[in-house]
Amino acid sequence: MYFMYVLMKPRIIAAFDFDGTLTTRDTFMPFALFIVGPGKWLWTLFLLIPSVFQFLFRIITRQELKERAITLFLQNMPYHELEEAGKEFAAEIIPKLLKKNAMNRLKWHLEQDHHVILISASPEVYLHPWAKMMGIHNVCGSRLELDNQGHVTGKLMGLNCRAEEKVKRLKELMGNEKEYELYAYGNSRGDKELLAYADHRYFRKI
Questions:
Q1: Per-residue pLDDT tens over the stretch 84-142
Q2: Are β-strands 180-186 and 200-203 bridged in parallel, bridged antiparallel, or unpaired?
C-alpha cells in the first residue's frame, strides 16, 4: 500500500524567478556591458532614453522597449559568439550578483530532489549555462530571434517571459498543475501570475 502511495504522490516543482529573486539586481544590463564594453554601453543607454520615456508614458510596451535595447546592444551579433559570452558571463559575473539566502533555498530544493525550473524574462543565452552549472533542471527565459545566418535580429522569438507568459511556459513544459505540487518564488509584478498559480508562493521572502 505504501509503495503505491509513493508512485502516485505528485511531483514537486520549484519555479524561481531570476532577476531580483535569486540576484540582487537586473542582469541584462550587466550582460550588455560585458558584451559591448563601457563606451558603447554608456552611449547606448543615452540612445535608449527616448524609448524609456515612451514606455513610462505607455506609448510603447515593455516588450517593445526590451527589443529596442536588444537591437541597440546585440543586433547582428552571431549567436555562437553570444553563447560563448553567455557562458563566460554565467561563470564570472552572475556569482557576484547572487543572494545568499535565495541560493540556499534553491539548493535546498535540489537536495530534496525537487524538479527546479528557472523562469525569467532574462535571455536564455546566459540563463542556460548558469542553470547547468547549478544543476537546475529546466530554463524558461526570453528567446532571442535569429536571422537565416544565425545573427541576432533585435527581436524576441515569441513573448517576453513575464506575467501570464510565465504560467503559459510552465504549463507547456510540465503540464497541468494538478499533476504536481508547485513552489514559486518571485519579487515583482511580472511574477504575480506565476505566484497565484502556485501551491506555495514566496514574494520577496528569500
A1: 999 999 999 999 999 999 999 999 999 999 999 999 999 999 999 999 999 999 999 99
A2: parallel
Phi, psi dihedral angles at 107 (to 5 degrees): -65, -35
**d(Cα 124, Cα 140) in Å, to the nearest integer?**
7
Q: Which amino acid is at 75?
A: Q
HSE at residue 28, side-chain half, CA atoms within 13 A, is 19
Count the alpha carbons within 13 Å of 50 in the hemisphere toward its beta carbon. Answer: 2
What does the angle CA 184 – CA 122 – CA 68 come to, to the nearest 5 degrees? 140
d(CA 17, CA 187): 8
The torsion angles phi and psi of 142, rounded to 5 degrees, stand at: -75, 140
> Residue 18 corresponds to which cell in the numbers above?
531570476
Q: Superfamily for 2-203?
A: HAD superfamily/HAD-like (3.40.50.1000)
Provide the grid cell at 80. 555562437
Q: State if pTM tops 0.90.
A: yes
The closest of 109, 90, 72, 94 to 23, measured between CA atoms, is 94
C-alpha cell at position 93: 559575473
Alpha helices in the chain (DSSP H): 2-8, 28-36, 38-56, 62-74, 79-92, 94-97, 100-111, 124-134, 164-174, 192-197
Return the domain boundaries, the chain.
Answer: 2-203
What are the φ and ψ backbone dihedral angles of 128, each rounded to 5 degrees? -60, -50
Residue 15: its H or E element? strand 11-16
